[in-house]
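New to this. Please check this record:
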Amino acid sequence: MSINVMVIDDHTLVREAVCRMIDSEPDLHVVGQAGSVAEGRMMLQQHPLHVLVIDVSMPDGSGLTLARAAREASPRLGIVVLTMHNDDETLLEALDLGASALVLKSAPSEEVIAAVRRAAVAPDAFMATGLAEALRRRSSSDKPKLTPRETEVLDRLVAGDSIAAVAKKLYMSESTVKTHVSKVYEKLGAHNRASAVMAALRLGLVKPESAQNLPG
């Protein structure tokens, strides 16, 4: 089966080189190419397609926006994001929009060709170098945002201090401490001190040794 491919990239030399590379493969065929989001959107409506190879940054908009629209219109379309942007934001956005792969423009031609072939048969199985690390960094960035005062209160709770002791050490009234504790519980999805401490440890908000004085 011949795999029909469209290439959208605003850099003419890059686009033509990618098209030649793809067309040199016996099972791949470039059916169209475009140099802008607007032109690409129009061409997507004109050609039967198996795989879209698209750049991210273009003069009239983001290739990722067009890729998202293409995915919504054609759930089985393979989408290969070919970019020079080697950052978590671009990689994770490509993943979230439903792309099949993200490949850097600095990658060997064999990697690009492999991504195109794979996208044609497994359009919903995302592949990218560094994906696991990017997901791990995104997970760590999802930590709840505590205010400095809430962090101080949490530290004292983890250390095993009573409300009265926290109030004394932090120079606050007990009612103010209780308000902070309530907000900490809410942000951590906790219902009591023990579950708050466990959540704080799991999220890396406190060090395990900080909880050694917590009553069992």
Q: What stands out?
A: Residues 174-188 form the longest helix (15 residues). The first strand starts at residue 3 and ends at 8.
